[in-house]
Design goal:
By secondary structure, the protein is an alpha/beta fold. The chain has an eight-stranded mixed sheet with strand order 1-2-4-3-5-6-7-8, sandwiched between helices. Helix 3 links the parallel strand 5 and strand 6.
Length: about 270
């Protein structure tokens, strides 16, 4: 792992491979390690870069509250620090929000955008459900929401057959800094409102992906994002839940690589 220092602190990142830069942003409560199977496979074609968001892993943990602009600035500092001219960007869940924010403010630094298992335009019922989880974390601590999250994120077959991988995710969640986690989770619960009315301004070639059975980042949300972003592409993966990059890396890796190839060589 390596670090870059910028005005908000330090950014913990890892890179592997050569070629066009392909940057991945993890979800809330996770870290760069969730992308292991993308790093291993896609580094055969790209310079793959993964990093820890503010308040996660080895990056800086400033006091909350956090803003979406902080996360966008962190990514911009990483891109500038590594002297990357244009990137392919993939954001998962909360990372999808950061990726959208970056595409809105720094389109000149991007070649493609992939928004994966991200939320958008939550209904009042959906918003109240996640705000209730925020309050549960605030009251009872992060541990209280881990097992329900694991059940939402993975299919039952994967939970039964890949216990070691699931335990790795569980351990990551259990070892989060509580104050940083609640600050990041609070932002995750509200930032879709900040982005929704701006999505039609995204001009970067975009791929939108989610799982057919993702109850938090639903196919309906993915469809709405797709409709908002002109000429975007949409992929709904059958019978899958939230943790697509971990549970079905074969589908995710092929989708990202194919999209980049089509975009770079056709447009």
């Amino acid at each position: 792992m390596s670090k870059i220092t910028y005005d908000q602190g330090t950014i913990h990142y890892q890179e592997k491979g050569t070629g066009e830069p392909l940057v991945f942003i993890h979800g809330v409560g996770l870290d760069h390690a969730m992308w292991e199977q993308q790093v291993n496979r896609l580094s055969e074609q790209y310079r793959v870069i993964v990093y820890d968001m503010i308040g996660h892993g080895g990056s800086s943990h400033p006091p909350g509250p956090y803003s979406l602009s902080q996360y966008v600035e962190q990514l911009a500092s990483l891109v500038d620090g590594l002297r990357l001219e244009k990137i392919h960007l993939v954001g998962f869940s909360m990372g999808g929000m950061v990726a959208q924010g970056f595409a809105l403010t720094h389109p000149e630094k991007m070649k493609t955008l992939t928004i994966m298992n991200a939320v958008a335009n939550r209904t009042e019922m959906q918003r109240q459900a996640i705000l209730a989880r925020v309050e549960e974390v605030r009251t009872n601590g992060p541990q209280s929401t881990i097992e329900p999250a694991i059940q939402r994120w993975f299919t039952s077959d994967y939970l039964e057959g890949q216990g070691e991988v699931v335990n790795g995710i569980r351990t990551r969640l259990q070892t989060n800094n509580p104050a940083s986690y609640i600050a990041a989770y609070t932002l995750f619960a509200t930032a879709d409102q900040e982005l929704w009315d701006k999505l039609d301004r995204i001009t970067v070639p975009t791929l939108v992906i989610t799982g057919e059975e993702d109850v938090g980042s639903t196919p309906e949300m993915a469809q709405q994002i797709h409709e908002k972003i002109t000429d975007s592409e949409l992929l709904i993966v059958p019978a899958m839940r939230h943790m697509l990059p971990v549970e079905r890396p074969d589908i995710v890796n092929e989708a990202i690589h194919s999209f980049i190839e089509r975009t770079v060589f056709v447009r």
